[in-house]
Design goal:
The structure is a homodimer.
Chain A (H helix, E strand, L loop, with lengths): L14 H4 L2 E5 L3 H17 L2 E4 L8 E9 L4 E6 L2 E8 H14 L9 E5 L6 E4 L2 E6 L3 E3 L10 E2 L2 E2 L3 H17 L3 E3 L7 H4 L6 H11 L5 E5 L4 H4 L11 H17 L5 E4 L16 H12 L5 E5 L19 H6 L10 E6 L22 E7 L15 H9 L8 H4 L3 E5 L15 H12 L5 H12 L5 H11 L2 H9 L36 E2 L19 H6 L9 H4 L2 E2 L10 H25 L6 H33 L11
Parallel strand pairs in A: 1-2, 1-3, 3-5, 7-12, 7-18, 12-13, 13-14, 14-15, 15-16, 16-17, 17-18
Antiparallel strand pairs in A: 4-5, 4-6, 8-9, 10-11, 19-20
Chain lengths: 653, 653
């Protein structure tokens, strides 16, 4: 643990509690966790904590009032005393961290009573961690923060320092509201398949470290498990022996991990096995696993990321963006209650700008979970500052129909792909911690203001706050997603990345590939016609008003124009600029914004601890180099194609 | 050895000898090799062989007439008897294989006396084989024929079957005239560095298997060896301790391998260490190694493949094509007699079409070796038929100046990067064996007719010949290089390949890279201006008349036009076609030619053994798929850029 960054829980944030007198009422393992937190704070800062009936007076009372499994808590402020009460231990733990996040403000004011509860019962991180290092993808697929917290050298980490690190991780997650972790990659390779059976003990060891923080452990499994592990001749979900095998395997999982959360499955996707091989539907596949989990209270998360990844680029009728909707909407109502369909927020794959997946809102009789990507695969790989709070907030507040926003429609929960590894700063780029924190807080409260969450993160992480530091961090982070969008992906065009690793520009990198990811740029224009009238019909997958808004270039928002329409370079946007001039301008601006953010960061050298400052400064150098490369390649590409000079005469190569 | 293809030495080709009476005169290890060949043939076919003085009459006399190390031999035909005589054992071995290649014709006619000797004393194959599997490059860098013949599992292969395979390889090489093999990759990684010192025994074991076939073994070494192996603080070639270390290391090599050929060095290239680090010249570096080798009769092959591989694509003044000339011509006359400068035949890197390297002919006081690439890195990776004989013949017959051709200027020898691995057919694609054979035969006789060599290869490999089979193979192979050029690289533009592995099209794959490999295509035209008047000046590196021929688009040959000039799509070629129509036409034609060749091959199903026929047929499917991909991507790319429709209205996507 030595040398590991405390992230948003530095000792200092416990000072307001640690200097006061606290009474803790209730018992149970998570109450013990609460006690340990308060007692630790008091040890450091000279306060006092008592359990159960003890003589007063107290500044803070933490009270378990029931024995349920709830996560809600009440925060009250009366008579100079702060009281947190909850009917469930998990609620009490979240209440404690609420007080921690409030800081001194938790002990100010009078006559306040607040009820807090999460919008969703499942707030989950999916780790794409491999047990055995994958020859191409490494220890952590799409990981940019070193190795895995959980796995090393082909085994679960077991050293005391490693387990302490897992506990510290659980504590950070609890402090931002996350309550579930899937511990291995959704692409389940040969070694990882065995976690389900003979290696479940390793998963149980991880679960033991996360349990005191209210976190349930989930496991990614391969649909082919009955064959590769069970020796059966088939994995047909309607085969009785297959169902029996899963039931028995699942019962054994629960013997090892009584509060096990469930399975995550990527089936029939990018080469993974699935029910299609047996002529069965995805509902058949998911329901079989749901049946095995049901007696134990578990859930199957079935990913909707199913598309043809062997598409012919010459074929302009097939549209990958349509795939999830086309595959799954016909199955609405067929999924079991404990089967959750896990849908990526956009129709493609975590590009810096996508419209909302039309699947969300189109399956009213199915529990959907919405999947976000904290790990910055397409957003700078934690070498670039890119705070995703505004993007996620836009997603979660988006109203596919008039009567519900995404945050409400995600009845199956919110999931993010983790951005954490064994890096001392957890996330490689220290400022990428803000993404993890923001995800947890938005998962609790999807309509929360991301700016307020960012303020909270800054106050905690950089406590005690310095106004110049706070303002500087806001300046660096606030617009960083839009900055990244500017120098990479204009007007909804994605995929102009280097194939494979996805870092850095390659405008045609995926243009003639089988991945279904094209921009169709020619000498006259660019973009994908996804209208119903003349294109792939994708726009018609939306409910009104969006189907109409997206159908016409006249109403489609600028930032998604080229996602929905093929436009000439000379087309004039709402902004008054032409498409080509917009491309040039945003790319120049994006680099200028990185330069400015780098200057701001440099100016904070006296108010940020040296190691953290140096790490971020070093990443800014790479971000700037890379942003210039993006600018020059994208601008040169479109200048060479369009022949239109920059209106401001800037250098294009 | 079981299941390994006999290539151009099937038993049948020994029938003319094996059915006759042979007298062998002389002694020595290579004479023993000759004896074993003839005796084996007689065992199979009922003939007879006697050593030294024996009663006649004989049909064939093989006679060692001296004790030198020469490779020349005389072939005579008098009084119904064929006589091969040589003053050196190696000459006698080559004479035997001459008789084998001639077949029955060796025993026909009268009053013939022919003297044969190789044009160059060094005819070498460089194996880019790694001992330890490289995480990116694998066991054999740019290898398309399975694993290494020499190395497996981090060690030299030592099983009897493996050693028999190495001997079989040596025998095949001797039969086409190759006399030197470098056994490891020029990119010398950590494991391979040790072959020079503590692991020289493994090299010696390989050398023992190759020696009976007149083949000397060479080793690629790292310039940093004194540091990484010797523990010295420097590898400065002018440092006395460094020179002493190399002298001692080299002496130990010769203790293990008395006929060791020498070192191959890639220095200051693509990240390899070299003399530049110490402010020394490449002559300093090469001469130090030459001095260490000189007492033992060894040679250092110093590769001239030195260029800036971290070029900024925005910089249009730097020209990678200039690099070898600029680096090395100033050093002419400074290299030791036993230092050979090994120059790739073109200025770039084995593209399907390049002009001759201007270095060749420009260093009259330096021994140059010309390096060709048998392994089909950029020419279809042994999944495509691409017989390189015509390209190599064009290279070797090219006259940089009026008074000498390349074959004559290559006083240091001819080298090819090997295309062989542990594949049962040796070369992955069975027809790629023709490249290996052709290289050996052209290295012996650079002005030889490649068509005649191809006939020879067909007669040997497919003995006994069937006229339909022979004609079919000629049809498939004859034009295959130009066919490959047609569907890949128009008018001298190279590098439109997928980065990294170099298989398949990616028109912009290297366009914005640091590798110095650009085509500068825009909406108006394409090509690199390398003229003296307005471009990088590269054309001026040639002697007259070539400097003038290449300087102007009016005189530059069509097939190199875009290598030397940036031309508009509408420019009319000598052929009468525009540049853009040429691009379209050649890409359609190239695919049609592949389709035709595939049909020819299919028609040979009854006259080719099933395994070989099936392997080639399977590769033709991939070649055709890939050729269509090339056609469609290249045509689409240039149509999207130029906006010019195909004059014949064919489908462009």
């Amino acid at each position: 643990m030595q040398g590991v960054d405390p992230a948003w829980l530095p000792d200092e944030v416990f000072r307001p509690i640690g200097t006061r007198r606290t009474l803790l009422r209730g018992s149970g393992p998570l109450v013990d966790t609460v006690y340990a937190e308060v007692a630790g704070a008091c040890d450091r800062f000279g306060g006092r904590v008592e359990r159960d009936a003890s003589p007063g007076p107290f500044d803070l009372v933490l009270e378990l009032t029931g024995a349920d499994d709830g996560e809600a808590f009440a925060y009250e402020r009366h008579d100079g005393r702060t009281t947190v009460s909850a009917s469930g231990q998990r609620g009490l733990l979240y209440g404690l961290f609420h007080v921690v996040r409030l800081g001194e403000a938790a002990f100010r004011g009078e006559h306040r009573t607040e009820q807090h509860s999460p919008a969703s019962p499942l707030r989950m991180l999916d780790h794409w961690d491999n047990v055995a290092v994958h020859p191409v993808m490494g220890q952590v697929e799409r990981g940019y923060a070193g190795g895995s917290l959980f796995w090393a050298n082909g085994r679960a980490r077991g050293e005391p320092a490693d387990l302490a690190r897992v506990r510290a991780y659980g504590r950070l997650l609890a402090a931002c509201g996350i309550n579930a972790v899937a511990v291995n990659n959704v692409n389940v390779h040969a070694t990882e398949a065995h976690l389900l059976t003979d290696r479940i003990g390793e998963v149980a060891d991880i679960a033991s470290e996360l349990r005191p923080f209210g976190i349930r452990t989930h496991l990614s499994v391969t649909f082919a498990a009955p064959i590769v592990l069970g020796g059966l001749p088939t994995a047909d979900p309607l085969d009785e022996a297959v169902g029996a095998w899963w039931a028995e395997a699942t019962a054994r999982v629960y013997e090892a991990i009584p509060d096990f959360g469930g399975y995550v499955v990527k089936a029939d996707s990018e080469g993974r096995p699935g029910p299609f091989a047996y002529g069965r539907s995805h509902a058949d596949g998911a329901n079989m696993l749901a049946a095995a989990l049901e007696p134990h209270g578990g859930t199957v998360h079935w990913r909707a990321f199913v598309y043809n990844h062997r598409q012919d680029w010459r074929d302009r009728t097939t549209d990958r963006a349509r795939a999830a909707y086309d595959h799954f909407v016909p199955l609405d109502g067929e999924f079991a209650d404990n089967a959750v369909l896990q849908v990526k927020h956009g129709p493609m794959d975590f590009q810096v700008r996508e419209p909302l997946s039309p699947l969300i809102g189109a399956m009213p009789r199915t529990r959907l979970a919405v999947e976000l990507q904290a790990t910055q695969e397409y957003t700078g790989q934690q070498r670039h500052v890119c705070w995703l709070g505004p993007m996620w907030s836009e997603v979660l507040r988006f109203r596919p129909e008039a009567d519900a926003c995404v945050g409400e429609l995600a009845r199956g929960g919110l999931v993010a792909v983790s951005n954490v590894g064994d890096d001392p700063f957890w996330t490689g780029h220290p400022l990428a911690q803000a993404n993890l924190f923001t995800f947890g807080r938005l998962a609790w409260e999807p309509d929360g203001d991301p700016g307020r969450i960012l303020d909270e993160w800054i106050r905690l992480t950089f406590a005690p706050g310095d106004p110049r530091l706070h303002a500087g961090l806001r300046a660096v982070l606030d617009g960083s997603w839009r900055t990244y969008e500017k120098y990479t992906a204009p007007l909804g065009v994605g995929w102009m990345v280097q194939p494979g690793h996805h870092y850095g520009p390659s405008v045609d990198g995926y243009e003639y590939s089988p991945w279904g990811t094209y921009h169709f740029a020619d000498r006259d224009g660019i973009g994908v016609d996804r209208s119903v009238a003349t294109g792939t019909g994708y726009a018609g997958q939306y409910a009104k008003p969006w189907a109409e808004v997206y159908e016409s270039p006249d109403t489609c928002p600028d930032e998604l124009l080229l996602f929905f329409h093929h436009m000439s370079y000379g087309h004039v946007l709402r902004s008054g600029k032409t498409v080509i001039q917009h491309i040039y301008d945003t790319h120049f601006e994006g680099v200028e914004e990185v330069e400015a953010a780098r200057e701001v960061w440099a100016s904070l050298v006296d108010v940020v601890d040296p190691a953290r400052h140096a790490r971020v400064a070093e990443r800014f150098e790479e971000q700037l180099r890379s942003a210039r490369e993006w600018r020059d390649q994208v601008n040169s590409y479109f200048f060479r194609k369009s022949g239109v000079p920059d209106a401001h005469g800037r250098r294009i190569y």
